[in-house]
Amino acid sequence: MSKCKKLRVEGRYLKAGDSPFFWLGDTAWLMLQKLSEDEIKLYLQNRAGLGFNVIQTVLVHYLTDLGDLRDPTTPEYFAFCRQIAEYADSLGLYLALLPSWGSVVKKGFINPENAERYADYIGECFNDLDNIIWVLGGDVRGDAIADVVRIEAMTLKKHNPGRLITYHPFGRTSSSFWWNSENWLDFNMFQSGHRRYDQEILGEWDDKKVSTEEYFGEDNWRYVLRDHSLTPQKPVLDAEPSYERILQGLHNKKEPYWKDGDIRRYAYWSVLAGACGHTYGHNAIMQFYREGDPNGGYGVKEGWQEALGAPGAAQMRFLKELMQSLDWQSGKPADELLTYGQKERCHRISVFQGDGFIVCYDFSGDEFGLDLKDFKGKPLSVYWIDPQSGSRSLAETGKPPERAVFRPYRKDGEFNDWVLLIKEEDR
After folding, report:
1. Are 131 and 88 in contact, with CB atoms under 8 Å apart?
2. Alpha carbons 72 and 121: distance in angstroms, whole number
3. Homologous superfamily of 7-324 in CATH?
4. Do the first three CATH levels of 7-324 and 330-424 match, i.e. the same topology?
5. Residue 144, exposed/middle/buried by CB under 10 A (0-12, 13-18, 19+)?
6. Where are the domains positioned within the chain?
7. Separation of alpha carbons 99 and 95, rounded Å
8. What is the pLDDT of residues 287-342, one digit of tens each?
9. What stretches of 91-233 show up as alpha helix (H) in DSSP?
10. CATH 2.60.40 describes domain 330-424
């Protein structure tokens, strides 16, 4: 019997059956190509143990220069993938499964002449599994492969109309750019990408920004607000923010690496802007790099098994557990509650209000004020939560003033980010 209940959309969020579903994804693009069955099971067990519930991976990543990798053109390969999907389900993990990487379509291996046949094949292969989410695209602009995307989407919906389908886009874009009004797209994904605020134009191979598209830099929360302003409004999440231990900007090995504190910032910023969850990634794990492999990219330094213990991955569960402890799907971004202290970029204060609670994220540990008149006369509990350790400290109880000031404790170390939780005591 399946441990994963079929996902569905309800408003701006997702549900598994009738229960709220918080998407906590990990990025495992090359899992099916590069790992043995035992290695895959080890990886999936690790991620399930850390609280992840979605694994983003690719059925066909490339069709040339296979070397010793599995041949994705054989029935045996897809039977293997099906077996892995069943094992993931036994752990309560969903597979956000890409039929192929975008480059496979751009190079013509999958094209308008064979796309329906391929989608029929994989649709039938996974048809009866409840833990599959189809993700079209794969780091590619929608307008570059539009014909194939529509064929695949319509064909996959024919096999299982209730199964969710989304699209993984190119860096600094959202699936909403091309597909938001199309009925097959159940929720949006955006890729906020791996660049700093000052890296808008790098002159690298991936610098294909269109002049009419807004550039948000590290402000990934802005993608959420923008997509929620569209009609129809659909759930949205950051499916590829900056990976832990990847070069800032990807290509220049003289640049610094993104660290766990940065990864926390992207997660809390997007979720408290109203995203339906978040996807984490690690440079070594997304490509399943092995030490000594000459093909490692983006300055990767450690092997994937060592990277299983990276701090950022373990810290993601604190966000998931916090949101699941609240009626979080009743909530919405509420920056208007700030009476002072709001600043730009890394000094932004995120505010999220729901039924009987407020959650704030303060990356820089700055002082800020809140308007609490909605809780007038109600006894409250106020907690400071360290998103790095998950520790929760009760700071205050009672009936607060309508305008309150909050000043986080100064931690040792490089990052001083804090979560403020305010709850009605009878909740």
Report:
1. yes
2. 13
3. Glycosidases (3.20.20.80)
4. no
5. middle
6. 7-324, 330-424
7. 12
8. 999 998 988 999 999 999 999 999 999 999 999 999 999 999 999 999 999 999 99
9. 102-106, 115-125, 146-159, 176-179, 221-228
10. yes
